[in-house]
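Subject: for your reference before the review

Hello V.,

The reviewers asked for a structural picture of the protein, and I figured it would be easier to keep everything in one thread rather than splitting it across files. Below is the amino acid sequence we used in the manuscript, unchanged from the supplementary table.
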Amino acid sequence: MNSPTGSQSVHSSSVRSRLDVALLNPYNNMTIKYFSLACSFLKTLTECFSNGTMTALAVKVESAPNLNPGQLTLSDPACGPTYSDDRFAYFHFTVNSCGTTRKFINNVMLYENEISLPDELEVKLNATTSSEDEYQLKVSCYYVVNITRTLAFLTRPRDNEPFAETGTGRLMVRMRLAQDASYNTFYQEEDYPVVKYLKQPLHFEVELTRSSDPKVALMLDHCWATLNEDRISSLM
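And here is what came back from the structure prediction:
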């Protein structure tokens, strides 16, 4: 039996390793049989949260022995790992950042990003080693797109002021007005005021852009319009 060679592949829920073995005749050194042994090591490498946050774990593999996980980045080279050591790099980012792409497939919205070495580091690493250590890991999340519904509403004075339950933590929320139901194009600051007619639908996107807790989700309950920034001002 000759010295085995191995390879590894990284998937969203596991790391799969393969060992290639050649069985040799000890007298004439001829190959009797080739075979492979494979094992999957289950581990959650990508997580998708309902608030639009993604986490990804990039694991160092044998095919890139000289890789420093701390030098890995997302598609945007400015987005490095939140934590790393000599074995893995952990990334935490939102789906609208770090070069994440978005596309629609039927009623599913797919977000994709890629973990790799920046080009200049990969060239430098390959120049100083005899092997080409290439590392690329694609991470993706998909969300089911809700259908658009038309709602009717009547304005009336409120009995009491809206309130929210007390909580702790930091978060940032952004609301944008889309030009149509596709949510591909949004009005910019210089476009306001935007003229709309009665019963013409308004397509708002409300997004939790930053939060100290990746499991925090944004749920819209009551929406109302006001005359100015004072949330208790009335249109009546």
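For the response letter, the relevant points are probably these. The mean pLDDT is 77. Helices lie at 119-128.

Happy to draft the paragraph if you're swamped.

O.
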